[in-house]
Amino acid sequence: METVYDYETFANIADLKTYLDGQSDGTAIGTPLAVRLSGVNLSEQETNIESLFAALDASDKYIALDLSACKGMTAWTRYDKGADKIVSLILPDTVTEAEPRQCGLEGRGINT
After folding, report:
1. Beta carbons of 79 and 49 less than 8 angstroms apart
2. 3-state secondary structure of 73
3. Which of 68, 89, 102, 104 lies deepest, with the highest CB count within 10 Å?
4. What three-state secondary structure class fits 4?
5. 46-55 long-range contacts, Cβ below 8 Å, gap at least 24?
6. Is the Cβ–Cβ distance between 82 and 50 less than 8 Å?
């Protein structure tokens, strides 16, 4: 049975980081925090995917991550920092290349 998450939505990475830092939940893989970024262009310098994963890494929380409403992303590649805490991942429709074995998500049942 697929898990359905009630996502908290954020319009920027800074607000997402503040939210994650303030949460006491998300410390166990079975109870991740469900977060969605909406309208964020992940190819811009201030909001790039590396800054997102730096925020995820710093929070040290397990998360269900929805990037479906983000812009500027066409491929999913390996991200070392922060990827180990993602338990669910939704990518934008613009992503046409993704391989879980290159993403740090192997063995998690991540559907790309």
Report:
1. yes
2. coil
3. 89
4. coil
5. 47/12, 47/13, 49/73, 49/79, 50/79, 51/13, 52/13, 52/16, 52/82, 53/79, 53/80, 53/81, 53/82, 53/83, 54/81, 54/82, 55/13, 55/16, 55/17, 55/20, 55/82
6. no
Contacts of residue 109, Cβ cutoff 8 Å, sequence gap at least 6: none
CB burial readout 44-83, b (16+ within 10 A) else e: eeebbbebbbbbbeebebbbbbbbeebeebeebeebeebb
> Which residue numbers in the chain have pLDDT < 70?
1-2, 45-47, 78, 99-112
- 53, 83 Cβ separation under 8 angstroms: yes
Enter the tokens of residue 36: 């969605």
pLDDT for res 74 = 84
Q: pTM for this structure? A: 0.82
CA distance 37 to 102: 22
Instruction: Return the amino acid letter for 51.
Output: S
Query: Do the Cβ atoms of 85 and 61 come closer than 8 Å?
Result: yes
